[in-house]
Specification:
By secondary structure, this protein is mostly helical. The protein is built from 26 helices and no strands.
């Protein structure tokens, strides 16, 4: 029964996404009603397999939206047609993990592990290498970065006299992973915010990359200041220190030929990532379909061609098929929340209740003034994340209220504020996928992992507010 249930979920989820992509990219509305029906079925079969928090949010969205529509006398066909919003975001969550396949097939994940053995001079240097590698991979792989980095660095970290291995590995990986979410096209939140503000990715890239790199330097600085108290065990005996250092140095010897291979592989990976981002941004500028859909449509052929050039085309197709059958059925929680939230947003728009939200947000902006309102904005998705709400959902609910023209705020500042707020949710939101994946990997509670990220999150918020203040 469990296998049959997974097969049904995989079929319905994948079918809804494929029809949506065909309908949207080809501008064919023939399948719209079928897509809405499939979305309703998707929510229905997803709810039993979602967490209690996700089920609660789903029921709140559906019941609230249904009540508003019933009060306005909306007929059943129109009610059904409101389902299917946010399928473009779900398609991105489904497709992006395919980029991890050629990285595995090409042996690039092993290179990260060997890199840590190349020139590790100290615990601080190890932290910088891990967070920097996580930052690098997150530009391209999104959530797949977390397990790949953990299993690449676990053995190395175990050789160091670190007092709390779990804390060290969690902080170094998650902090590095979260920062590219500010700007990378593979992060769904980037496409959502850019569509909201109407600003181009190319225009915002230098600003967002600067903030992202500033956050990485801040992370390294905070860890440097805290490492003596939090990371290394207190080895009082100098002889013991020397023995530990000697053991590590001997264990990390790598010959010059292997060092050249590592550097060559890293250069290849860097070129591929740069080419993919350049391809997405060029097509996004040329095609009228938005960044999210452009990324979705290009990911599969890009990963397939890359694998084919390595002579691994058949292996890629096999792993991609396995991805659909194994990974997609486990996305029940995302399908339940995103599709129900999309329905709720459409219900707000159709019934006119979104204008009431607009009045509240605009009134708050006028009362507080632009500087304080911008400083408050990042805390909205962060606060909602503690209710289990994804930042994409939170921003979608407030989309019309956050119109930069109505608020009188520059599109650049609004974009930075919203994306910066999204980063804080990935760092501290105890119910999001980032914390959830790390929790399952290191066998630690989500709330504890969230607490570990508190110092850096606070520092990043200060950096973000300062950045907004000086941004023209």
């Amino acid at each position: 029964m469990s296998i049959q249930s997974r097969h049904i979920r995989a079929t319905v989820f994948t079918g809804a996404i494929l029809l949506h992509l065909i309908s949207t990219s080809a501008h064919v509305h023939l399948f719209d009603f079928v897509i809405s029906l499939l979305s309703i079925v998707a929510v229905a079969i997803a709810i039993p397999h979602a967490s209690s928090m996700a089920r609660t949010l789903t029921f709140i969205f559906i019941l609230s939206g249904s009540w508003m529509l019933w009060a306005r006398g909306i007929h059943l066909p129109q009610y059904i047609s409101l389902y299917g919003n946010m399928l473009h975001l779900l398609s991105l969550f489904v497709i992006i993990p395919l980029l991890a396949i050629p990285i595995q097939l090409g042996g690039y994940s092993k290179i990260i592990k060997r890199l840590l053995h190349l020139k590790v001079r100290s615990q601080q240097h190890l932290y910088q290498l891990i967070s920097g590698s996580s930052f690098f991979l997150s530009c391209f792989m999104n959530l797949a970065t977390l397990p790949m980095m953990y299993y690449s660095v676990k053995d190395t970290i175990d050789q160091y006299p670190i007092q709390s291995h779990k804390r060290f590995v969690s902080m170094s990986i998650v902090h590095g992973y979260a920062l590219p979410i500010l700007w990378t096209p593979v992060a769904p939140i980037v496409g959502v915010v850019l569509d909201l503000t109407g600003v181009s990715w190319i225009r915002m890239f230098p600003v967002l990359l600067s903030l992202s790199l500033g956050g990485l330097i801040l992370d390294w600085s905070i860890h440097f200041l805290m490492k003596n108290r939090l990371s290394f065990s207190k080895i009082q005996d100098k002889q013991a220190r020397r023995e530990a250092a000697t053991t590590l140095e001997e264990g990390f010897m790598i010959d010059k030929s292997e060092a050249k291979i590592i550097k060559r592989k890293l250069m290849q990976l860097g070129l591929v990532i740069s080419f993919f981002i350049l391809l997405i941004t060029t097509l996004e500028h040329a095609l009228p379909i938005g960044m999210v859909l452009t990324t979705v449509l290009m990911t599969f052929p890009f990963a397939a061609i890359w694998s084919g050039l390595m002579g691994k085309g058949a292996s890629f197709l096999e792993k991609a098929s396995r991805h659909v059958s194994r990974y997609v059925p486990d996305m029940a929680e995302q399908f339940a929340i995103f599709l129900s939230a999309g329905f709720f947003v459409k219900a707000l728009e159709l019934t006119g209740h979104n204008h009431e939200v607009n009045v509240v947000v605009q009134g708050l902006n006028h009362w507080m003034g632009d500087p304080l309102f911008l400083a408050l904005l990042p805390f909205i998705p962060l606060g909602l994340s503690f209710t289990g709400m994804h930042p994409v959902v939170a921003i979608a609910l407030l989309a019309e209220s956050l119109n930069p023209q109505l608020l009188g705020i520059s599109v650049e500042k609004l974009t930075v504020a919203l994306l910066g707020g999204a980063v804080t949710t990935f760092l501290m939101g105890p119910f999001n996928a980032t914390i959830g994946i790390m929790s399952s990997i290191i066998k630690e509670t989500p709330l504890r992992i969230s607490a570990w990220n508190g110092s850096f999150t606070a520092g990043f918020v200060v950096l973000l507010i300062g950045f907004l203040y000086f941004l023209p």
